[in-house]
Amino acid sequence: DAPVIQYLPWFRLSDPYVTSQMTIRDLLVHRSGLGLGAGDLLWWPASTYNRREIAQRLAQIPLATSFRSAYAYDNVLYLVAGEVIESITGQSWEDYISNRLLKRIGMTSSAVRHSAATAGGNVATPHAFVDGKLQSVKPFDSDNTNPAGGIMSNAADMAKWLIVFLNRGRIADGSRIYSEAVARELEAFVTPQPFGNPAPELKALRKNFSGYALGLGVSDYRGRKLITHTGGLPGYTSRVAWIPEINAGVAVLTNQESGEAWNSIAWTVLDHYLGVNDTDWVDAYSKVKARSDAALARTDAGTASARNASSKPSLPLDRFAGTYTDAWYGDVAVTLENGKLVVRFTKTPLLIGEAEHWQYDTFLVKWRDRELRADAFITFSIDADGKVDVARMRAASPSVDFSFDFQDLVLRKAR
User: Fold this and answer.
1) DSSP labels for 298-363?
2) What is the DSSP letter of 161?
3) Measured between alpha carbons, how far is 84 from 358 in angstroms, rounded to an integer?
4) Of 118, 112, 128, which is closest to residue 255 (Cα–Cα)?
């Protein structure tokens, strides 16, 4: 509960009061006032910013809600928490986690760096749908944000991890990684999470409460307390879940982006230990996904049909070119090349794409790396003098991952 600035005097958010009051606990429970995924474009896709630079740029992002009033998932504050560990221990987050946790627990096959996915060895190849086709994709291998999801593991090691949780911090040699008091605190939710009723096929997932604890989601499942979290990187998704009351847990690691797959497995396993068998989870999720896919297709088709394809830009294309600067991200260059506008995020090598005219002064940016699956609209605003003043962006489809927080950019053209 100590202030973050006690350990990181350079840390700032846009509001001085929030900066002074933000505690270590606040870093972990997604109630800072920042919006969903705020600042993720500073590291996703991989950028040339280092950890300190990413954390410091949070100071330029306006808060979306008042402090501690709302839940909004944020990855960058976990990077800041990693910086706190380094400040206190003198060790990098990677070395501290390796020595303090993984080695003591015996998780000898686990790694603490995203780059381990490309270091060779017995590593699953990630897969995803790219332009409608299932294919292998490049692993995310930037180590900038290891504190926010950088651990790679396997079934055997995740079983050891689950046993530590179920044993309330006690490990195989009888010693403790953490105390019983800490165990209670880890699993006590701090930030309430909104929830609604699930689809009819998933009625067994109906919740009575839901909240975010210290890096863990806490809710109820079939009348018992459920503790869980998911993980996601390109081509890798996972869920870990346990029910303390029945001393059972499950971890599902996949190398394809199918929430339906790992959820079906997780709930089937937990149902077995709960002694219930009233839901065919594979069938249920298949039906829900079919409806979701159809709804997404309708939305995307609606966006295309509403387009005024006969409209023209207000200005010649070369007048849109220039350097645009966002207060928190930095520079985005728009150039005219071979008769087309090209958008380049200067700190993110993969974010380069051709901007095709969509309608009026809006263009559709199609990233050259199609594995990003994050095409975006860019809309230019013209000032009273007939010059481009500001550009705003947003994802072109609801299917784009929330970490592509284009909508938070305010790109002002350099004069």
Assistant:
1) HHHHHHHHT--TT---SS-GGGT-EEEEETTTEEEEEEEETTEEEEEETT-TT-EEEEEEEETTEE
2) H
3) 45
4) 128
Note whether 128 and 137 are within 8 A (CB): yes
With tokens 């409209």, the residue in question is 311
User: How far is it, in rounded angstroms, from Cα 317 to Cα 335?
Assistant: 9
Hey, what are 281's tokens? 């989870």
Residues paired with residue 355 on neighbouring β-strands, in sequence order: 341, 365
Look up residue 188 and give its amino acid: A
**Strand pairing of 224-233 and 217-221?**
antiparallel
What's the CA angle centered on 404, arms 401 and 409, to 5 degrees?
145
Amino acid code (one letter) for 340? K
Give me 182's structure tokens.
């800490």
CA distance 197 to 203: 8
Residue found under tokens 């490049």? 138
Would you state the torsion angle of the CA atoms of residues 143, 145, 148, 152, taken in this order, to the nearest 10 degrees?
Answer: -10
pLDDT in tens, 61-90: 999 999 999 999 999 999 999 999 999 999
* Residue 293 contacts residue 399 (beta carbons within 8 Å): no
The structure tokens listed for 198 are: 């699930």
Dig out the tokens for 402 from the structure: 């929330």
Three-state DSSP at 76 gives helix
**pLDDT for 121:** 84
Distances (CA, A) of 103 to 91, 97, 154, 231, 244: 15, 9, 15, 22, 24
Residue 305 has pLDDT above 90, yes or no: yes
Tell me: cis bond preceding 313? Omega within 30 of 0 counts: no
CB 376 within 8 A of CB 404: yes
Sheet of strand 217-221: strand arrangement: 191-192, 210-212, 217-221, 224-233, 236-243, 248-254
Say if residue 93's pLDDT is above 90.
yes
Q: Answer whether 302's CB lies under 8 Å from 296's CB.
A: no
Q: What would the two tokens of residue 201 be? A: 């096929």
Q: Is the pTM of this model over 0.85?
A: yes
Mapped onto helix, strand or coil, the DSSP state of residue 379 is strand
Full DSSP string of 21-70? H-BHHHHHTT-SSPPTTTTGGGTSS--S--HHHHHHHGGGSPPSS-TTSS
Angstrom CA distances, 83 to 21, 27, 142, 337, stand at 18, 11, 17, 41
